[in-house]
């Protein structure tokens, strides 16, 4: 059938640039057009129902039809659709959200909360803000040369110039002239891939802590401002850190007065089975960034939370300069704040963390049962985030050549069975809405099991 050039499908190809997409392939494949959402399902333009196994992009925690969030947005839009928070202005929703977030977020020592919240619209902006605050803080305390930031290979922190620099994925840097100087990357704490033959997990942790310390000493501790980490790496392949990893890393950071920034953009608000990934992994951050599930993605909003010590230094610097000269037009948007407040209220009322703890074993145990499949090298995860890593040889753990696009084939096979997942590098990733129930998890598990068999048959036939 000839393509109707006025169809949304054709106009998408004609006019729309898709981020994180193979642009050439899109010209022939076109878009997957999603029309509407219902619970954990999205429904495409042909009426086909698909479980959104990635929760949009790790974000639609309350699914796709939570009317309370739509109502909260509409109420606020009618009442006060916009107000800036520059120059001492404020609004009720922003004040309530800042109070709630700072009292619920873990701080730099046991029992301590965060002190202040600064709002933006995306995880990237929150991390850019954190990076600028590292510099601002060190100027305030008289150590302006402490400005390098250490991140980890395979970490994901965003796509703006600074946050893409923090990101440790080569394709986010290549031909964009990134990373910026002063951003350093250390080894990803993925024992399955990075552990040496014969090395125990505890030895692996020790090696990574020593690598970090050697880097700090080689660069000069007086030049290192901060370390940034996701409690569990998401986009880099759901890398759950080994036992004791963050405790050892933080020992090193404290010894050299290096700030700890926790990027909770994915982990925050229940994803790991705790409210915060920091709680799950014993992280005591000086700054914490969050977004995504903060509003269940119904409105773009993010926050950078800072400790009392950071804020006090900001005060000193603002005194010196006469102003704190940072901020975004839409940071502190009252509609985003109202949606976030309603989201947090729903989390509390429905005990979303308790729900994640209750249903997540179904997903993780179900996926682990697939570890005997010839294509599955490792299943890893925590709470409602997981990855199934594919290998062509279980003994050597050799991956498939990326040109074969095996995870992509598997994701397509799973999609034909009614489940949307993301195939990335060597793995299939899972991050369903937190409201998912066990019956819906079973649908995902069946689709993946059948998809793996189909992929294996395709590979065998393909030689
Ligand atoms: N940090 C983490 C951990 C993320 O997963 C992401 C987005 N996937 C970001 C930051 C960037 O967020 P955004 O896309 O909203 O800029």
UniProtKB/TrEMBL annotation:
Signal peptide: none annotated. The keyword Transferase applies. The keyword Transferase applies. PROSITE patterns: AA_TRANSFER_CLASS_3 (PS00600). GO terms for molecular function: transaminase activity. Its cofactor is pyridoxal 5'-phosphate. Keywords: Aminotransferase, Pyridoxal phosphate, Transferase. It comes from the Bacteria. It holds the Pfam family Aminotran_3. Belongs to the class-III pyridoxal-phosphate-dependent aminotransferase family. NCBIfam families: PRK06105.1 (NF004767). This is Aspartate aminotransferase family protein.
